[in-house]
Amino acid sequence: MRARNLLLLALIVAGPAFADSSLPPQPLAYTQLPDPKQEMRAKELMETLRCLVCQGQSIADSDAEMAGNMRAEVRQRIAAGEAPDQIRSWLVQRYGDYVTYDPPWSWLTAPLWLMPFVLIAVGLFIARRSFGKEEAE
Amino acid sequence: MRRVLIWAPLGLFALVFALVASGLLAPADRAVKSAMVGKPVPQFTLPSLVPGKPAVSSAGFADGKVRLVNVFASWCVPCIAEAPQLMALKQQGVEIIGVATADKPEDMANFLRNAGDPFAAIGDDRIRKVQFALGSAGVPESFVIDGKGRITKQHIGYIGPQDMPEILAALAAAR
What we know:
The complex is a heterodimer of chains A (137) and B (175). Chain A is mostly helical. Chain A contains six helices and no strands. Chain A has helices at 2-13, 27-30, 36-46, 65-79, 84-95, 110-136. The radius of gyration of chain A is 24 Å and the shape is flat. Chain B has one domain: Glutaredoxin, CATH 3.40.30.10. Chain B is built from six helices and seven strands; from the N terminus they run ααβββαβαβαββα. In chain B, the strands form two sheets. In chain B, strands 5-4-3-6-7 form a five-stranded mixed sheet. A two-stranded antiparallel ribbon of chain B has the order 1-2. Chain B has helices at residues 2-5, 8-25, 77-91, 105-115, 129-134, 164-174; strands at 45-46, 56-57, 67-72, 95-101, 119-125, 141-145, 151-156. The longest helix of chain B has 18 residues, at 8-25. Chain B is elongated. The chains are: A mainly alpha (137), B alpha/beta (175). Chain A binds chain B through residues 17-18, 20-23, 26, 52-53, 55, 65-66, 69-70, 72-73, 91-96, 98-99, and chain B through 30, 32-36, 73, 75, 77, 101-104, 107, 126-129, 132-135, 137-138.
């Protein structure tokens, strides 16, 4: 019984394990740039950059601390006048194509770009065959 | 034709089963690797995080000495687990440079007291600028830098006793 009470107490007072630091978020992680045009460019870019610790999300969507730091980095660079494509290629140099959701054309990514056309062609072919048959009958 | 087609659903099932089974038995490695391996260390300077420890400047890395740059943090639990291995490396004469990620001086002082201090210098990478520049996607990560200031290896995750032969081999190869 005592052991169970202890266990219960342990469960109640247990703190979550933190995977983030205790620092407050960086100013530009959650604050927009004062210039709406720049903010728009930053936001567009952030939506196409992968969060490195929560890999299904973009850094614009993620609340991970590292994504916040990355947003701040992007906003700082945009505010300093860097072009979005420059920032993207800087990150691709560091992390590879994996970091961008807008994959550049290469023979490795070719199936990704070509598959929609192939599928549409297949669909048209099937549609023509089945509708064509009806007309003939 | 129908004879063959009747087996198609089973064949499809077998295909999907094989796909799922292979994913279960050999999970894909989802760690984001740095594309900087083989390239020179990016230029950076970091102020010192804790009093009594020098600051970090990558300009001094191309002096013929092999170094291990350890991206870590006091709030990172696996970093405590790799401390004994880093200590052993230091005893073998490896210069270990710490890049402290999003950290506070007082937390770091505590960490060094408890886990040990194998670091020749600890830089304050509060906003992860240097972590991004290195292409590191988490803590802890370690980079082997050769005497010409080139990154020759990235180790993702903590350095356990089982990783020591690999790390030592990479350090020896960088010499």
